[in-house]
């Protein structure tokens, strides 16, 4: 590389504009990303971050504008090959892994198979995969495991490993689209360290995130997109969290993001158990006793592999209970399936959005899917009734764009999440199980999602089982917290004992002051 090429930005976007039909989603974006720098790309749900990245990846063609990589103009529309050859690598929100293929095969898809003479060497392949996995802390994962059998957190790390492999320091550009959205805090720190080390090796990192703490922990430069335009592009030192939140949401000091709830509720929770588990086991969780009361927000948290997600699947019926009893409204359930759960008034929002909605259906179809009977008029499905319900849900959850006819897949990730939650809120629910409900959701939308749920809790006595690794969120919203470790409930916290430090300490089984030393003690789901 010539000296002049080195002084050029690694990536330069010049007047990038993108229209989807009549909608302009990127509007004359001019940005530079430099080697040896971590550049955070922020913006509310739907502001255009993913679209920008997809153009850079060669997935979308821009309507107009140009891109230079290391000073050289990239032929547009870019091909994934040309971008890859220029050293630009991606971890997309949807990870781009093939679920039915093994971890080793998914890793090999990126850089080819290890060969001995003309044949693929499976031993070398496995060894290479093990090295890749170790690089992201997944030493215990067998490379032969199909990716679909891994939890979303582990899948994120596999995608990270794949992107990092073969990245050429000094010329590499690593684009991370919300890589930590599902990672527990200890892994977030590890990831941030890895990012800093890549920056120190001269990589240009483009880091899309909704988590401002991470951005302030490591970014050098921050860009904020709003409605497809750059509204802030400065060194991190030029801003602070409050200022940046205002820029992202477009709200000023007099009109801040509303708080979802007041101080912790006292005495509002009913004593009647809606769901009770006694001695319940699945494949990883064992011997769980738990009561979820009427009108209660019960959070279950814990590190990767602690088993909290499995609890949701067992209660809803997407996974079989292998021992113990589940009781609903005092009745022991003989059979648990998703269909029966819906009839019983038990809703479930899984971590993986793709399981929870039909991407090709429009918003009205997705939102009304769970309760079509409500929209039947004289034996026909009433479009007008669906539309009215959809417009209300769109308003309550602040879904953007607010168009019931828009296909779900055309919405940004955070807005899809709102629709999925909205679908369940259409039902007359008794119990709602939420697994990481604010994954990939911006600060403003996170508040509107949780406010909608809490409104239902207050108005109908809905019981919420909140399965979440985000300790801050759990500490803020839960009436009671169960901390899981290695498939069992390790600690129960209530009232004023619900603090971030206490939850973290219980997750790691250390005293609060010893947290820093325990970062490596991460449990892995077997
Ligand atoms: N394939 C598509 N067809 C039509 N419109 C689209 C398509 N993809 C994205 N959009 C629209 O472009 C806008 C920007 O979406 P984008 O996914 O880039 O937002 P984002 O900033 O990444 O949001 P999030 O933080 O929720 O992921 C949104 O209004 C979205 O509805």
TrEMBL record:
Claim: ATP-binding is one of the keywords in the record: yes
Alphabetic keyword roster: ATP-binding, Cell membrane, Membrane, Nucleotide-binding, Repeat, Sugar transport, Translocase, Transport
GO MF annotation list: ATP binding
Pfam families according to UniProt: ABC_tran
This protein's name: Sugar ABC transporter ATP-binding protein
Top-level taxon of origin: Bacteria
PROSITE patterns: ABC_TRANSPORTER_1 (PS00211), ABC_TRANSPORTER_2 (PS50893)
Domain ABC transporter: residue ranges: 11-511
Database matches in SUPFAM superfamilies: P-loop containing nucleoside triphosphate hydrolases
């Amino acid at each position: 590389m010539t000296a002049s090429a080195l002084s050029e930005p690694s990536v330069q976007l010049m007047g990038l504009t993108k229209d989807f039909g009549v909608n302009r989603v990127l509007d004359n974006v001019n940005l530079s990303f430099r080697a040896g720098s971590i550049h955070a790309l922020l913006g509310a749900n739907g502001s255009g971050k993913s679209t920008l990245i997809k153009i850079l990846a060669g997935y979308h063609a821009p309507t107009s504008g140009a891109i230079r990589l290391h000073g050289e103009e990239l032929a547009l529309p870019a091909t994934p090959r040309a971008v890859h050859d220029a050293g630009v690598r991606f971890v997309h929100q949807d990870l781009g892994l093939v679920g039915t293929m093994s971890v080793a095969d998914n890793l090999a898809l990126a850089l080819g198979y290890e060969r001995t003479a003309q044949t693929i060497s499976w031993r070398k392949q496995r060894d290479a995969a093990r090295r890749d996995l170790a690089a992201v802390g997944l030493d215990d994962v067998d490379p032969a495991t199909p990716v679909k059998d891994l939890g979303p957190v582990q899948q994120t790390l596999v995608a990270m490993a794949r992107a990092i492999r073969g990245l050429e320091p000094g010329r590499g550009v690593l684009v991370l689209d919300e890589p930590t959205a599902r990672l527990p805090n200890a892994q977030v720190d590890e990831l941030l360290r890895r990012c800093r080390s890549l920056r120190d090796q001269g990589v240009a990192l483009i880091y899309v995130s909704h988590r401002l703490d991470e951005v302030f922990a490591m970014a050098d430069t921050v860009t904020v997109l709003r409605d497809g335009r750059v509204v802030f592009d400065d060194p991190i030192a030029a801003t602070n969290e409050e200022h940046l939140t205002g820029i992202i949401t477009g709200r000023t000091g007099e009109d801040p993001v509303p708080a979802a709830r007041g101080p912790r509720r006292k005495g509002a929770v009913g004593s009647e158990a809606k769901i009770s588990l006694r001695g319940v086991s699945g494949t990883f969780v064992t011997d769980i006793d738990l009561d979820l009361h009427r009108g209660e927000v019960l959070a279950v948290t814990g590190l990767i592999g602690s088993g909290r997600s499995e609890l949701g699947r067992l209660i809803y019926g997407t996974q079989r209970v292998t021992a113990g009893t589940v009781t609903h409204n005092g009745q022991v359930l003989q059979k648990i399936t998703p269909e029966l759960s819906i009839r019983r008034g038990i809703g479930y929002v899984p971590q993986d959005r793709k399981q929870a909605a039909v991407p090709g259906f429009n918003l009205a179809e997705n939102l009304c899917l769970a309760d079509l009977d409500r929209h039947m008029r004289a034996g026909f499905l009433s479009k007008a009734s669906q539309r009215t319900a959809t417009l209300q849900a769109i308003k309550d959850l602040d879904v953007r764009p607010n168009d019931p006819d828009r296909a779900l897949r055309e919405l940004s990730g955070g807005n899809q999440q709102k629709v999925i939650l909205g679908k369940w809120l259409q039902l007359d629910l008794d119990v709602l199980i939420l697994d990481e409900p604010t994954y990939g959701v911006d600060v403003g939308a996170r508040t509107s999602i949780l406010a909608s749920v809490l409104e239902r809790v207050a108005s109908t006595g809905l019981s919420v089982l909140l399965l979440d690794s985000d300790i801050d969120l759990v500490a803020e919203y839960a009436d009671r917290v169960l901390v899981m470790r290695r498939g069992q409930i390790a600690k129960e916290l209530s009232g004023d004992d619900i603090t971030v430090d206490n939850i973290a300490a219980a997750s790691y089984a250390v005293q609060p002051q010893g947290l820093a030393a325990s970062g490596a003690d991460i449990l892995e789901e077997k």
